[in-house]
Amino acid sequence: MAENEYVPLFETRQVKGPILFRCIAASILLGICLIVMYRIRYFSIGGKAERWTWIGLFLSELWFSFYWLLTTVCRWNAVIRIPFIHRLSQRFGKELPGIDIFVCTADPLLEPPSMVVNTVLSMMAYDYPPEKLSVYLSDDGGSNLTFYAMLEAANFSKTWLPFCKKFKVEPMSPEAYFRTASEPLNVEEWPSVKILIDGRDTNAVDIEGNPLPTLVYLAREKRPQYHHHFKAGAMNALIRISSRISNAPIILNVDCDMYSNNSESIKYSLCIFMDEEKGDEFGYVQFPQSFDNLTKNDIYGCSFRVIQKLEVKGLDANGGPCFIGTGCFHRREALCGKKYEKNFRFDLKKLNNTKVNERASLLEEICKVLASCTFEHNTTWGKEMGLIYGFPVEDIVTGLSVQCRGWKSVFLDPERDGFFGVAPITLLQLLVQHKRWTEGHLQVFLSKYCPLLYGYKKIPLKLRLAYCAYNLWAANCLATLYYVVVPCLCLLKGIKLFPKISSPWVLPFAYVAFSHHAYSLGELLWCGGTFLGWCNDQRMWLFKRTTSYLFASLETILKLLGYSQLAFVITTKVADEDVSKRYDQEMIEFGVASPMFNILATLAILNLLGSFGTMKKVTMHADKGFKVLDQFGLQILLCLVLVTMNLPVYQALFFRMDKGKMPSSVTYKSIIFALLACTLSVY
Length: 683
Hints:
The protein has helices at residues 18-41, 48-75, 85-92, 113-124, 144-167, 230-245, 265-273, 305-316, 332-335, 348-352, 360-370, 394-404, 427-445, 451-454, 461-471, 476-493, 506-526, 531-560, 577-584, 595-620, 622-645, 647-655, 664-682, and strands at 10-14, 79-83, 99-105, 133-139, 193-197, 214-218, 250-255, 259-260, 282-286, 328-331, 408-411, 419-420.
């Protein structure tokens, strides 16, 4: 091989099975067209109630069809990226760039210091030159517990890092160390910025004499009259102070619960950034969001298996995945507002010359100014530089802004997961988390950052539509609620909404429903899931659409009207022993009263009553039983499917005796609401 011959550092391949996917998608589209024809041709000309219920169902089906098209477009072309880290080491050797790693935490009660320190130590233990690693922790809680834990971590790293390198430990998170208590150091009123380990110091070595990575602690200044902008503000402060201390050209950001599970993740990302032919065009490299506490059948559907294995790879083929807030490697210049230029080149010699000569104490004083709450006043931080402010999903809108400045992004999914985090272990945690995400996405869609408008002539149409598929999560709530409530009530009143079982028009309805769900089951199994896991996933999508999405829509409307303020809800990462035990047994955790549970329980009981009412008609009038089944077969099937999906809700309402059952107040309210709805529907 010639010395100057180009050898790529990564390869792009087509995801397997595109022809099968496209054929099934085309057949489903044909079925949808036939359903539309049926709705138009057999438009109800009966009473007023019949007409409006028919129109409502037709509009719901049109929305489902439109949303299905959005998601299908996203996945029409999907690719995977394969990095070659051995070529990286052969080509660049010791000339690898510096890496700044940002870890953010906000509440020591919801995000325990032991978990935070596990994450920090795992980041320090990467298989990468330690003198080129700098780890920054932003503690928006300003907690003495977190600070003490960081001091302990700085000391323990001298033993832990050599141990990881010697025995090639993976994952690199020393959870067992924090099972024993340690005495806190005598520290009072520490500064807001503290360099705990100065990687420039020749004495900063481990027990084997090897250099240690730089470790920096930050507690931002906060004042009531200045908005601190939550995680986005913390990230922007870290960008500024890291530029004075280490100024690495590549930044990795992780949530405090996302520890490193692959010691070579940095090298994987550098295979993308440092490829001589294509690397200069990429602004960030996104890794999957994986969890190490999932149950066998993923009781809350948190794995995102299909989304990350198929959907996001579809985005990658059309300009790049979105930034999901954690496990992402950024090019510093792209994150700080620089526009992509075709002649841009990754100057290694320049970027490696990032060392500063100031003493650590002087750097700390300088960085205090950069982290002050007044520094960003009358600047472009949060608007054109750094993470964008004003949205609960600052990551999504920031990634979109980077792409609209001309940069591309890459999704890397190595065989060994790059990062592991903590998934919600109660249903309410899950619903609240998705409410925040959904609300943020909808706010982005209704703002100037709407991908269809903001990305016009900046990013491909397919990528803009892919963003909209996530931005419009919340809009699914109305169509789903209509499909869950109205067919059930119409059964009780005797209003037919679907073709007879004996009619050939039943075929497109049956085919679309069966093929779509059968294919989704096949995808989940192919991605490593189970049949029960697929059932749980379908159940959680129903729960989220009827609660999280609904409340997110209402909250967004109130915000637009000026009745609500932006808030950032932290998902708790801790749970008591009983809750954890029930989670391991795959029992859905209810336990507390919540408006979301009122809705879930009411809908479940409503469909149960509708099913009982129909069964009564069939059994008590044997001569008309077959006629009822023929006329209302699809509606009855829909109710029975919903009843089956709600079996855990019925158990929690009527049979469970543990603390995770549905509270009595929710049970009473839901029964009253359901009975009232059934009574009103009959008249």
